[in-house]
Structure to design on (415 residues):
């Protein structure tokens, strides 16, 4: 017996299918005219003799020869940090993908940043909320909340931070090798390269005003930078306890932490196929406008068919190789491949799944501009609908439907 994947799989070289036409058609694209490599019978139909980049093409087999079940046309749901230009300075670098680069992404801007050991992202604030996940190394964050309470913490791989819009903060790489992280702003047109910087404000304020504001002579400000620093190399900070003591001045600390250990948290969904960890305003209380899921899918497993009713989904692929199909009205269905450093995007309420097509774990983070994480599982819906009704829709007997998962497993194993 051939699996569904065997039936649909077509190599880039156009390998002949071994199954019968009648069997293949039952799992092919039902629309006319027939689409997909499985329906390409002409000589040389699958050849691509024109100019091309073989290296890029091999990364996107699903774009080269989509599954026969793909249909119609949908906006591109793939982008990548891998080809985003880096702004490099002494102390680190950053690159970003905004809506200007990725038209579909109108709710989230993504930034990838690296800070050396001692490298500083200068004191600043944003007009949008900032959410981030650490992907490498160690970082020290500082932030002042809206009522003047300071907060200092260290974060490591798998940890999150969240700074509400307008709350001033800084980031600094720690030893031994600094850090790297991904930031999400809750606006599609936000920019990491256009933020409110403390050095800019000092340089564009008359010295006599600075003198009055801080109660010191104007000469105090004679050596301030005349251009902003943005990212610069600093000296490694002292221990965390010393920094916390230095900023406290007997002030109370914020009631909710600005960080969350997502990677070390307990999964909310777990199976042999993988797991899902959630951080939203119910457990990461300060994160009032961004919810997130860290998803791990074992080789051959699948992030089950589902959709999100309350927000678009912005994805960042951390490791492994994935293939995602997104389903829309029309019908429209599009399949794309994702590798480490890539970004995916799924509009609110559109059905989708993500399959691990590699031989190592696939891991990605899904980010939503919403206070709570919400999802609807296709199998959970169908197993909580009268079985006779489902059977009449799909021509599948009720005994088979009774064996479907009825608990919204999150991730399904390969078998």
């Amino acid at each position: 017996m051939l699996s569904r994947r065997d039936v649909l799989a077509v190599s880039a070289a156009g390998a002949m299918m071994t199954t019968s036409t009648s069997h293949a058609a039952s799992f092919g694209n039902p629309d006319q005219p027939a689409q997909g490599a499985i329906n390409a019978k002409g000589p040389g139909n699958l050849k691509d003799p024109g100019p091309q980049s073989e290296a890029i093409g091999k990364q996107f087999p699903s774009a080269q020869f989509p599954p026969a079940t793909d249909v119609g046309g949908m906006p591109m749901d793939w982008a990548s940090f891998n080809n985003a230009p880096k702004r490099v300075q002494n102390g680190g670098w950053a690159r970003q993908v905004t809506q200007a680069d990725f038209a579909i992404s109108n709710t989230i801007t993504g930034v990838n940043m690296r800070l050396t050991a001692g490298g500083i992202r200068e004191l600043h604030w944003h007009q949008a909320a900032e959410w981030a996940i650490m992907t490498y190394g160690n970082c020290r964050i500082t932030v002042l909340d809206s009522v003047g309470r300071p907060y200092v913490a260290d974060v490591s791989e798998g940890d999150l931070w969240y700074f509400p819009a307008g709350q001033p903060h800084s980031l600094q790489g720690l030893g031994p090798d600094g850090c790297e992280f991904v930031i999400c702003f809750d606006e599609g047109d936000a920019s990491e390269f256009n933020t409110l910087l403390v050095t800019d404000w000092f340089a564009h304020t008359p010295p006599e005003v600075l003198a009055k504001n801080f109660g010191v002579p104007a000469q105090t400000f004679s050596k301030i930078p005349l251009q902003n620093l943005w990212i610069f190399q600093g000296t490694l900070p002292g221990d965390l306890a010393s920094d916390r003591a230095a900023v406290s001045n007997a002030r109370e600390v914020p009631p909710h932490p600005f960080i969350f250990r997502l990677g070390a948290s307990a999964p909310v969904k777990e199976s042999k196929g993988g797991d899902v960890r959630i951080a939203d305003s119910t457990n990461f209380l300060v994160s009032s406008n961004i919810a997130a899921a860290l998803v791990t899918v074992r080789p051959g497993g699948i992030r089950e068919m589902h959709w999100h009713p309350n927000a678009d989904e912005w994805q960042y692929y951390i490791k492994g190789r994935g293939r995602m199909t997104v389903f829309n009205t029309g019908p429209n269905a599009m399949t794309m491949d994702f590798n480490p450093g890539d970004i995916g995007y799924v509009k609110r309420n559109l059905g989708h799944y993500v399959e691990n097509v590699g031989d190592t774990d696939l891991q990605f983070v899904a980010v939503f501009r919403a206070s709570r994480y919400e999802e609807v599982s296709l199998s959970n819906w169908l197993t909580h609908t009268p079985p006779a009704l489902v059977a009449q829709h799909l021509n599948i007997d009720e005994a088979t439907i009774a064996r479907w998962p009825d608990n919204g497993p999150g991730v399904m194993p390969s078998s």
Residues 1-26 have pLDDT under 50 and may be disordered. The chain has two domains: 83-259, 262-412. Residues 276 and 295 are 5 Å apart (CA to CA).
